[in-house]
Amino acid sequence: MTSLPPQPISPLDGRYRKAVEGLGDSLSEAGLNKARVHVEVEWLAYLTEHSLLGGSPMGDDQLASLREWAANFGQAEIDQLAETERVTQHDVKAVEYLVRDRLEAQGLGQFAELTHVCCTSEDINNLSYALTVQQAIADVWRPKFVDVIEELERQAAQYRELAMMSRTHGQPATPTTLGKELAVFVHRLKRQLDQIDAIEYLGKFSGATGTFAAHLAADPNADWPTISREFVEGLGLDWNPLTTQIESHDWQAELYTRIAHANRILHNLATDIWSYISIGYFRQIPVAGATGSSTMPHKVNPIRFENAEANLELSNAILDSLAATLVTSRWQRDLTDSSAQRNIGVGLGHSVLALDNIKRGLGQIDAAPEVLAADLDTNWEVLGEAIQTVIRAEVTAGRSTISDPYAALKELTRGRRIGQTELVEFVSALEIGDEAKQRLLELTPAGYVGIAAELIDFLD
Predict the structure, then answer these.
(1) Is the pLDDT of residue 301 over 90?
(2) Coil, strand or helix: which one is 109?
(3) What is the pLDDT of residues 318-337, one digit of tens each?
(4) Does the residue 81 lie in any domain?
(5) In terms of domains, do 44 and 177 share one?
(6) 259 in the same domain as 136
(7) How many CA atoms lie within 13 A of 232 on its CB side?
(8) How many Cα neighbours within 13 Å face the side chain of 37?
(9) From 56, 278, 293, 338, active-site residue
(10) Percentage of the chain surpassing pLDDT 90?
């Protein structure tokens, strides 16, 4: 039997590549190496611009050319790094040699010894991961997350007045509106987005054990903490002054925990929409040419929401593992984080894929007002709450002597389905004030939604 040509193992790099491909620009080995080259070049630029460690400023054109090369990191650099790493057996050292080679090629060999000076590999790595994760969130994950929120918000406005039977414990309960229920998810997701946006992307740049020891040995008169802070913040990151050899990764754990929480809310959304489809509250819009079942031609399956469920669970399995693993490092350094962090893109990728499916799924459903109305009309017993509450108010106001209103309604409605006629008869015989009685007689399940529609305005 012949072997297949080389194939991707992960569906993110195979079947679903198109949905997640933007992540490869940052959360891939090439994306990480591009960021490493950027950090190395910027550190070299900082040293020369500030005439540190014997360096003198590069010419503007020379520096611009070096930065342009770093920004255009591509296949040639990827191939060269792979070849070099086969010899060095060290990925960051290979990056250092790549930058050195570029300096020589540009006639800037006099700056070669400033490449990677005073740096441990983790100085380069932690900044590179911070930059690539920051880019992935800003350019890929966040826009897709916002797309889902905006579509939910649009539908919440569209269905704000559409009355719907609630179900607590799976049983008919006080009605609401479909729009308000969607708005609950919008509100929850927006809160998570605010917390994700507030995450600090921390970076350290302080040497082998976070003490600036080599820096001070090379130049005891320089203000190295200030230099470190300026450099890190100049990259668009927040400075962490107290670390071991590694940046402690707490910000990463916080970020992945927040995204995992958002994933869980999305999972709740997917299961709720799936359930509403199941009872007919939403119709699915058939996609031309699509097949719902290989044997049952009538079926339109809610596959977008089912796919989202699975991918959200996979995403959280990885993100939860990262959040738990990355906060621990034995003494001043171990390499557990090195292997773990290479899976950041996988964790975020499954979340991005789920977001893509949810957005597409939301675009393939329509509410079924007649189904919602029929469900309400067959569950008049849900007005029992309103009736017993009004009676209590009437007793308190001295307009009724009914004892234990709750028990009276429980006897009438618990475990029973009653219709409008029975409820009208019951209310008509109540010893309550005329105004209260008229309000109850005019009440319908579809009208018993409180201020559900107005609550949506709290999203603004």
Answers:
(1) no
(2) helix
(3) 999 999 999 999 999 999 99
(4) yes
(5) no
(6) yes
(7) 26
(8) 29
(9) 293
(10) 87
